[in-house]
């Protein structure tokens, strides 16, 4: 991606066209039509990764040879006129917390030897079967534990909008890569906000789908966690959600498959909705004035679009009560990670694992039951509104290294700071609801707003997000932190 091309060309590396960098769905259409080759795309993106990644540290593994071979095979299928999957030949990266056949996996931990995986995770397999070309693995914090993408193993990943700040976490590597134009789309996962938080900080679209919609390997973190993607457009997010929703499901609690494809819902008018403004944090947090101002701006925009906008509280949402129970869940989640050298893992995860080992079964079971019972009370908010509107993050993107300050005196302090960042996103994880972050603010460092839909209302959330994108386009914006 180093040559000069005409503005508006879908291969424009600088995003100088009126629509900025190309979307994954646009590239898929061009590849399928034979207007551009997958190998050509892959070479362009690999060149860009090699040139820009040293400044960002978004990738921990780049599969140059494998990506080229996969792209060549994709081009051969186009030449033969074969039936093609929806994202045939389009490059994507996979977050380095999830198994990819033939790739090393270390979950950003010095406590895990590089183990070459012998299988794809369920969601990864769905992406492969959708035709994506895997170009590499993106960074995360160790075990995906915190809201910045910094680890002793891989170092700090930087926000392309401001290299002194984090892109967020734990899917910060994918977010930084997509925001910097190193890829059109990136795989991500979300246990408390890890798709939506970096989407907000990097000016992207990031959605946590409904519980069970995306095929997963296990009921991890009692259903709090799921997988998804980071994109620059709502349509890309919706089209990939169609891939996930129609993939084989290993779980019995999956929601119904959509009657109308999500990509169609994203392009439809959502109708008049009742939207509830909310600033209640699930963890102890102070909402930054910039985040509150963005919420008010979004509310005004939605009202102008014809929606009814009201204030709406979530009953039963108490930060002290929730933090106590979430810490139990989080500690056991860290302890689930199998390591080869316990002494080599980072201090926060050692603290969490020690807490989990000192916990009896009744403590864990009681915490889970408490969360399930309280969830039914909290869900009553959606009896009053169709969608809850919040800032995605209550605070601005943290500066590199700031999360760890004071850790020697208080080993839990990094988690408390991470919880503050997740204080407005984790509710959707707890309730299993669909939630999307969209970038409505124009500033040097982005910030997003979050739309949380009711049970299985992924289509409603996508339709509303798509309407916002059409009313307030964002895909033309480019990061200011890099000479891209």
UniProtKB/TrEMBL annotation:
UniProt xrefs under InterPro entries: Amidase, Amidase_CS, Amidase_dom, AS_sf
Record region (Disordered): 1-22
GO terms, molecular function: catalytic activity
One of the Pfam families matching this protein, by short name: Amidase
Domain Amidase: 40-462
PANTHER family the UniProt entry points to: GLUTAMYL-TRNA(GLN) AMIDOTRANSFERASE SUBUNIT A, MITOCHONDRIAL (PTHR11895:SF7), TRANSAMIDASE (PTHR11895)
Protein name listed in UniProt: Amidase
Organism for this UniProt entry: Spongiactinospora rosea
Lineage of the organism: Bacteria, Bacillati, Actinomycetota, Actinomycetes, Streptosporangiales
């Amino acid at each position: 991606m180093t040559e000069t091309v005409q503005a508006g060309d879908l291969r424009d590396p600088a995003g100088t066209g009126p629509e900025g960098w190309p979307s994954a769905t646009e590239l898929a259409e061009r590849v399928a039509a034979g207007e551009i080759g997958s190998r050509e795309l892959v070479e362009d993106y690999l060149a860009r990764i090699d040139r820009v990644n040293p400044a960002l540290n978004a990738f921990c593994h780049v599969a140059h040879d494998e990506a080229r071979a996969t792209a060549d095979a994709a081009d051969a299928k186009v030449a033969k006129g074969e039936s093609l999957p929806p994202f045939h030949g389009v490059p994507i990266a996979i977050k380095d917390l999830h198994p990819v056949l033939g790739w090393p996996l270390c979950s950003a931990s010095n406590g895990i030897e590089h183990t070459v995986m012998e299988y794809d995770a369920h969601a990864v397999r769905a992406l492969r079967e959708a035709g994506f070309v895997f170009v590499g693995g993106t960074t995360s914090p160790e075990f995906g534990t915190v809201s910045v993408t910094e680890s002793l193993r891989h170092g700090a990943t930087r926000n392309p909008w401001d290299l002194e700040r984090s892109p967020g976490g734990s899917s910060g590597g994918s977010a930084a890569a997509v925001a910097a134009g190193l890829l059109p789309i990136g795989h991500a996962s979300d246990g408390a906000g890890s798709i939506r938080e970096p989407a907000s900080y990097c000016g992207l679209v990031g959605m946590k789908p409904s519980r069970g919609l995306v095929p997963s390997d296990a009921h991890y973190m009692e259903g709090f966690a799921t997988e998804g993607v980071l994109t620059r457009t709502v349509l890309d997010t919706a089209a990939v959600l169609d891939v996930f929703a129609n993939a084989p499901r290993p779980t019995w609690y999956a929601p119904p498959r959509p009657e109308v494809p999500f990509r169609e819902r994203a392009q439809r008018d959502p109708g008049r909705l009742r939207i509830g403004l909310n600033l209640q944090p699930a963890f102890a947090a102070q909402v930054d004035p910039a985040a509150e101002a963005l919420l008010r701006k979004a509310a005004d925009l939605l009202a102008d679009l014809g929606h009814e906008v009201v204030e709406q509280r979530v009953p039963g949402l108490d930060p002290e009560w929730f933090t106590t129970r979430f810490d139990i869940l989080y500690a056991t989640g860290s302890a689930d990670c199998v390591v080869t050298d316990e002494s080599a893992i980072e201090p926060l995860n050692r603290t969490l694992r020690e807490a989990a080992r000192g916990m009896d079964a009744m403590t864990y079971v009681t915490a889970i039951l408490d969360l399930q019972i309280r969830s039914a009370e909290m869900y009553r908010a959606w009896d009053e509104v169709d969608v809850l509107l919040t800032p995605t993050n209550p605070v601005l993107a943290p500066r590199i290294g700031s999360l760890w300050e004071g850790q020697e005196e208080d080993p839990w302090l990094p988690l408390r700071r991470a919880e503050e960042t997740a204080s407005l996103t984790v509710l959707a994880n707890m309730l299993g609801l669909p939630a999307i972050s969209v970038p409505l603010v124009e500033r040097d460092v982005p910030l997003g707003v979050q739309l949380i839909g009711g049970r299985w209302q992924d289509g409603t959330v996508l339709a509303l997000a798509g309407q916002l994108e059409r009313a307030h386009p964002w895909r033309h914006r480019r990061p200011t932190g890099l000479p891209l």
